[in-house]
Design brief:
CATH topology of the largest domain: Rossmann fold
Largest sheet: 8 strands, mixed
Low-confidence stretches: none
Shape: globular
Number of helices: 15
Distance between the termini: 6 Å
Oligomer: single chain
Strand order of the largest sheet: 3-4-2-1-5-6-7-8
Structural class: alpha/beta
Helix content: 40-55%
CATH class of the largest domain: Alpha Beta
Number of strands: 14
Length: 377
């Protein structure tokens, strides 16, 4: 199959984009041709070919206005780009590219699949000032309702139920969190836990906690830190990731006198992030809004306990090492009750990259018709 992928952002920016990159790689290895159209950042090339995946970056994105302009420019660009090309499927990562990508797909008679990368719904009103929250809420609903998707892919049953009345498209549940067996096994085998703990200044009697993700409102790191300020336990929290909330978080850390307890590492390569998770005592996920966070599955696959808020598809994960909380204040209770890793986790089998790639391949083949099964790719 010849698959066009349209996404505002692409690897190495963001967790959903990392998953998209892995999926593209897996489908390429199955013999399919992938071309990605995405936004340009900094000094990135307009076009490159990486690991047999073609990547075009026609123009930039950025703040709210530039994102709107990106969406407006995308439709005529795709119209020109598709002329003379044979594309079997258009797959887009919501939300900014969804309307132009799905509408151009319908114009050219190409089946389109939209991945709902995140869905906050009414939780937007917990994340932003009322006017902006209302704007995001309406934009989210309109994108789902007005997009000409053949299929909407969501990552958990919770989201499928919430959007079922907002679209006439077929809804497919595919967990887009992709565990790479080789990367997980390498982190298990090669991580020098003692060395990493020493390098990060973790004392023997300190609880080593980790939070991984973009520093944005939905991740709820700011409120997590306020809760940690009241703890009696000796702990060190390592934050891996960066984002617009960083300055606000740094000010809070200084104001609460937690500079010795909380370390911001910024963005780290994926293999290094896995080693840090492997070296910790527990991963924390304080998010207000999530689908099926890859980092939770990675931590569980690495044999580390996870304490997570009961959001999105997280409660659908079956693992003896996953501890759910309704309020951040409950994290301390979970830790006090003991959080040593239990044996017998089957996460690697249930959420492997190969399994998810097979699900997508099956979906794409079904949409393009049975003749594709015999087509030479």
């Amino acid at each position: 199959m010849k698959i066009l992928v349209v996404s505002e952002h692409f690897y190495p920016y963001g967790g959903a984009e990392l998953s998209l990159w892995k999926l593209c790689g897996a489908l390429t290895r199955k013999g399919h041709q992938i071309h990605v159209i995405t936004a340009r950042r900094g000094g990135e090339a307009d076009y490159e070919k990486k690991d047999e995946i073609e990547i075009s970056r026609p123009f930039a994105t950025g703040n709210l206005i530039r994102r709107f302009i990106f969406a407006l420019r995308l439709y005529p660009y795709l119209k020109r780009w598709l002329r003379g090309r044979e594309i079997d499927i258009i797959y887009n990562l919501s939300y900014v590219p969804t309307l132009p990508a799905t509408r151009i797909a319908r114009k050219f008679g190409i089946p389109s699949v939209t991945l709902l990368g995140h869905f906050c719904g009414r939780k937007w009103f917990q994340l932003a000032i009322p006017p902006l929250a209302l704007l995001n809420f309406i934009a989210e609903r309109l994108t789902i309702r007005l997009g000409k998707h053949k299929v909407l892919v969501v990552q958990c049953q919770d989201t499928a139920e919430k959007i079922s009345t907002s679209t006439s498209a077929e809804i497919e549940v595919i967990c887009n969190t992709l565990l790479e067996t080789a990367a997980i096994n390498q982190a298990k085998e090669r991580t020098d836990i003692k060395k990493i703990r020493v390098a990060l200044g973790i004392e023997n009697n300190e609880l080593f906690l980790i939070q991984v993700g973009a520093l944005i409102r939905t991740k709820n790191v700011y409120n997590l830190i306020k809760v940690l300020a009241g703890w009696q336990q000796k702990f060190k929290l390592i934050l891996v990731g960066d984002g617009p909330e960083r300055a606000r978080i740094e000010k809070l850390i200084q104001r609460l006198g937690l500079a010795e307890n909380i370390l911001l590492l910024g963005e780290k390569p994926h293999d290094e992030t896995l080693s840090i998770i492997r070296s910790g005592d527990a991963l924390l996920l304080p998010s207000i809004c999530e689908q099926m966070p890859n980092v939770v599955l990675e931590a569980l696959a690495l044999g580390r306990p996870v304490i997570a808020t009961r959001v999105g598809g997280v409660p659908e994960i079956k693992s003896p090492n996953l501890h759910l909380v309704d309020q951040l204040e409950e994290i301390s209770r979970v830790i006090d009750s003991g959080i040593k890793a239990a044996e017998g986790d089957t996460i690697m089998t249930e959420y492997s990259l190969d399994r998810v790639a097979e699900q997508y391949e099956g979906l794409f083949l079904r949409l393009t018709g049975s003749k594709m099964k015999d087509k030479q790719v």
